[in-house]
Structures are given as structure tokens and as C-alpha cells.
């Protein structure tokens, strides 16, 4: 009986980070501190989300971000909290945020790292009490130490990430991250104010039976994607789409599945942002044995050309992603044109 009452609560995030520090011979504690800064900000955001309904923090703020999207009040709060934590922590020289047009120069010009971040993914779901999250990537700077960050520091391929992760705010709050040595998940214990290791060495299943896509845009999908969705339905796969990227990705990581946000007539280059959404989740996907592509190439090998660049996104269990890619490849432009011509002839 006493053994149960005094059972260990597990490994705290700080201790876990400290133990893994030897994996980075080039670092002297800065990366570990940077991860702690992100964890601290996430605890504050968790508190704000939990009291949003009672503090009038839900709803739109009446402004738009660089993508022309309505900013929610909590978008702006989260952006301020994470930016402040990263500036005060002193370990990042520059930040790219979804909510800010340009590079954020932290003034910490001797810092070795830069951070790209979506402070609050899926924030419009706050009003209806649905999952939201934070997504982040960490890179080593390229410019000389002691100078302001440059665009070259920010526009790095996903292969150059030294760490990436997300925070999921839901029935329990989780921080999931990787430094290139597997993926580990930590669950927040609010009474102790600590994250504890709850999901060690997370692995995505090779195959799955969940497909996550907004089928409202089905008529705008290309024929290859329509074919893949038809196959999923013929197999009676479960269609699960929360509308929160972190939530959908997290479920499929644990249970096996594929998440798709394709190019459409409305978003011809996709909707999700490469630097602070796709790259981070692609890094985690590959570390867990999953795959991530834009429909043609590996996400992590795409060379960014702008801070808020968009990309189509196919991520999840490798067999499902590979089949989706094969469907896209099978329906070439010539085949689609031929199909459209036959359709017109039949109708006439």
C-alpha cells in the first residue's frame, strides 16, 4: 500500500533535458535553456487558455496577420508570451512568428540560436473548447555571433533543425519534442507546475486507418487525391479532422494515420506555413518513423524563400503517405486532361 502511495511521479522535463545535454558536444547548455524557456511560456499559455471563457479572452481581436487571417485575442497573447520568454531567456537572437510580418530581433546578438514559431495553432477553436497547440523549430544561426540576425539565418531548410516540437493544450497539456534522437512526450502536472515524461520514444505506426483532411474542399482536389480518398473510404477508414493541426497530427502519431492539407483552387501553394508548421512536424514525423512530403518532395528538403511561405502537407504513417504519393503520380496532368475531355463528351 505504501509503495503505491509513494510511487515516483516520473522524470521531470528539466531533469530529462539535463541528462540529454551530452548529445550536443557543441552546446554548453544554451539549447537546454532555450527548451526550458519554451516550456515556461507554454505553462503561462495553458493558464490563459483554461480561463479564457471566464476572462473574455476568446474571439477575434479585430486585426489580421501577414496572411490576411483574423487574429484571435489568444493569438496575440501567445505571441507576446513566447516572444517575451525567448527574449528574457537570452538564448535566441531572432524569432519568426506567424503573428509578426518581419524577423523579430531579440537584441541577444551573442545567442547561437533562432526560433520559428506558431504561438497558437487553431486558436479559433478556443471559443468552442477544442484542441489548440503551439508549434516551434530551433536552428543554429548562420551569421557571425555578435551581429543582428539575418534573413539567411531564418530561411534554412528543415534538415538544419536542431530541435522541434509542439505543445498540445487539451484534456491534458503535453509538450512533445525532439532534438534528433527520437521523440518524447511530457504531460503537464498543474498541481506541481511541471512537465513529466509520459510518452517515451514515440513511434508512428507503419500503416494506419485514419485519414485527416477537410473534405469540404473535395471538388477542388486533383484527381490523384480524390482517388486516394476514395480508397480510404472503400476500406472504411475513419475520417477524423479536428481543424487543429497539432491535434490531428498528435492523434495520428499515436494511432497511425495520415494528415493532408493539399494545394487547392483557393490555396494553390497550400495553406500551412513551411517554416513554423510543416518543418517542425516533418522533423518530428521522421524522428518517429513517419513521412512528410508536399506531394512531390520531402518537406525537410524544401528551400524556403520567404518567412511566411506556404506548402501543401502530407504527413503520417509511411505506407499511407507513400500510397497517397503514388495516387498523385499516377494522375499526371495529361491523364487529368484526358479524363476531363471524356467527361465533357459524355455530358454532351
Automatic annotation (TrEMBL):
Q: Where in the cell is it found?
A: Cytoplasm
Q: Describe which pathway this protein belongs to, using the record's wording.
A: Carbohydrate biosynthesis
Q: Which cofactor does it need?
A: Mg(2+)
- Where do the annotations place substrate binding? 121-124, 214, 241, 271
- The EC number(s) given in the record are 3.1.3.11
State where Mg(2+) 2 binds.
Answer: 118, 121, 277
Domain annotation Fructose-1-6-bisphosphatase class I N-terminal: ranges: 13-199
Tell me the ranges covered by the Fructose-1-6-bisphosphatase class 1 C-terminal domain, including all copies. Answer: 205-328
What is known about its subunit structure?
Homotetramer.
This chain belongs to the protein called Fructose-1,6-bisphosphatase class 1
Amino acid at each position: 500500500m505504501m509503495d503505491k502511495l509513494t510511487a515516483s511521479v516520473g522524470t521531470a522535463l528539466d531533469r530529462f533535458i539535463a541528462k540529454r545535454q551530452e548529445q550536443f558536444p557543441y552546446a554548453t547548455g544554451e539549447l537546454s535553456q532555450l527548451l526550458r524557456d519554451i516550456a515556461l511560456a507554454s505553462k503561462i499559455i495553458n493558464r490563459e487558455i483554461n480561463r479564457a471563457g471566464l476572462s473574455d479572452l476568446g474571439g477575434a481581436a479585430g486585426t489580421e496577420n501577414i496572411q490576411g487571417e483574423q487574429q484571435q485575442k489568444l493569438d496575440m497573447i501567445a505571441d507576446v508570451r513566447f516572444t517575451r520568454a525567448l527574449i528574457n531567456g537570452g538564448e535566441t537572437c531572432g524569432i519568426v512568428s506567424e503573428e509578426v510580418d518581419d524577423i523579430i530581433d531579440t537584441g541577444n546578438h551573442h545567442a547561437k540560436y533562432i526560433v520559428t514559431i506558431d504561438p497558437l495553432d487553431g486558436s479559433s477553436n478556443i471559443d468552442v473548447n477544442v484542441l489548440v497547440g503551439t508549434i516551434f523549430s530551433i536552428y543554429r544561426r548562420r551569421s557571425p555571433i555578435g551581429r543582428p540576425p539575418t534573413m539567411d539565418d531564418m530561411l534554412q531548410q528543415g534538415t538544419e533543425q536542431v530541435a522541434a516540437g509542439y505543445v498540445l493544450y487539451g484534456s491534458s497539456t503535453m509538450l512533445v519534442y525532439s532534438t534528433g534522437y527520437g521523440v518524447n512526450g511530457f504531460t503537464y502536472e498543474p498541481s506541481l507546475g511541471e512537465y513529466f515524461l509520459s510518452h517515451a520514444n514515440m513511434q508512428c505506426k507503419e500503416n494506419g486507418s485514419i485519414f485527416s483532411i477537410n473534405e469540404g474542399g473535395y471538388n477542388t482536389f486533383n484527381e490523384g487525391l480524390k482517388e486516394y480518398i476514395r480508397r480510404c473510404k472503400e476500406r472504411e477508414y475513419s475520417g477524423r479532422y479536428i481543424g487543429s493541426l497539432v491535434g490531428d497530427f498528435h492523434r495520428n502519431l499515436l494511432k497511425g494515420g495520415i494528415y493532408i492539407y493539399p494545394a487547392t483552387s483557393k490555396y494553390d501553394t497550400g495553406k500551412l506555413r513551411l517554416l513554423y508548421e510543416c518543418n517542425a512536424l516533418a522533423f518530428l514525423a521522421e524522428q518517429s518513423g513517419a513521412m512528410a512530403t508536399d506531394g512531390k518532395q520531402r518537406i525537410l528538403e524544401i528551400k524556403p524563400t520567404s518567412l511566411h511561405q506556404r506548402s501543401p502537407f502530407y504527413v503520417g504513417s509511411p505506407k499511407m503517405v507513400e500510397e497517397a504519393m503514388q495516387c498523385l503520380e499516377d494522375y499526371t496532368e495529361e491523364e487529368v486532361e484526358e479524363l476531363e475531355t471524356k467527361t465533357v463528351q459524355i455530358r454532351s
